[in-house]
Design goal:
305 residues; mainly beta; Immunoglobulin-like; seven-stranded parallel sheet; 28 strands; 0% helix; disordered N terminus
């Protein structure tokens, strides 16, 4: 996060992972705001004194201000971090957005506006913003990262989904009984209706990898697991989400465990289609009967116990 602003042939980058806090002062006294931010100069944490100008707005884009700009002269910035404290009668506003401008301390001329505004948080919300350098004193019963509605939580890396947590639609005590956890490729998939699914990673869009034949990892039935690998499947993708529950593929390539409690540890192009069947590895092996087992090798078939 950050924008480049140039003035007097200098470049300043403001990485405002900002915490803007509000605490209520004594009656008849304007509320006290504390603005904490980070300032980088030429890609490094700024060090020295700067002048800042802070302007309150009613939303992120409005042209009209809520109050006159507030100027702070000779503010000391240490290792890129700074703090601005000010009083403002803004308590009756539904929301307050703050715009920041900066210049070298004592410089003549206009300030350089930093693109983007930061929303001020009222005192009851302080603590819900997590520091990028770590937090302390949090209570896991009330301080957490996540959603409080029925929507999934998604984490991205390189702007691509890398972890997705989906709450179950089945509730117990008013809360989802479990969640699907899907990591790795954004193409990996837990089919609708399946619950307790885990995809640990791996997978890729079909044809995406220049070296390997790829496809997503998929789980179609309840409590199925694909730990990793590529193009693996747990569940039969047919009938109900419970008729091939607890199927597991630990890894490998193009393996399918498609029956109740079936397991494939790894290898390539193996198929465990019998209930409680298992394949340890190898290539092109089949375990088709209930309780059947193939340890490894190539193109073996276990058709009975």
């Amino acid at each position: 996060m950050g924008v480049i602003n140039r003035f007097r042939q200098s470049a300043i980058v403001a990485g405002l992972a900002a915490t803007v806090s509000l605490s209520v002062a004594q009656p008849a006294v304007a509320e006290r705001y504390v603005y904490e931010g980070r300032l980088d100069e030429f890609g490094q944490p700024a060090q020295g004194s700067y002048d800042f100008r802070l302007t309150p707005y009613p939303d992120a884009k409005a042209g009209a201000t809520l109050a006159a700009p507030i100027q702070f002269d000779q503010v000391r910035v240490e290792r890129g971090r700074f703090q601005l404290e000010f009083d403002a009668p803004l308590a009756d506003q539904d929301q307050v957005w703050l715009a920041l401008a900066v210049r070298p301390a004592g410089a003549e001329g206009v300030f350089s506006d930093l693109v983007g505004r930061n929303k001020a948080l009222a005192a009851p919300l302080i603590g819900t913003c997590w520091s990028s350098t770590g937090d302390s004193g949090s209570n896991p019963s009330s301080n957490f990262l996540g959603t409080i509605d029925a929507q999934p939580l998604v984490l991205r890396a390189g702007n691509a989904q890398s972890l997705r947590m989906e709450p179950s639609s089945l509730l117990f005590g008013g809360l989802p009984i479990t969640a699907n956890v899907i990591a790795g490729s954004s193409a990996n998939l837990a089919l609708a209706g399946a619950r307790g699914v885990v995809i640990g990673g791996g997978g890729a869009d079909s044809g995406a990898d220049p070296i390997y034949i790829t496809a997503p990892n998929r789980v179609s039935d309840d409590y199925g697991v694909v730990a990793g690998g590529n193009a693996n499947q747990a569940g039969d993708e047919a009938g109900t989400a419970g008729d091939a529950a607890f199927a597991t593929v630990s890894g490998g390539h193009f393996n399918s465990a498609t029956a109740f409690f079936s397991v494939i540890a790894g290898g390539s192009n193996n198929r465990a289609t019998g209930q409680f069947s298992s394949i340890g590895g190898g290539k092109g092996n089949f375990a088709t009967a209930s309780g059947s087992f193939v340890g490894s090798g190539e193109e073996n078939t276990a058709a009975g116990v």
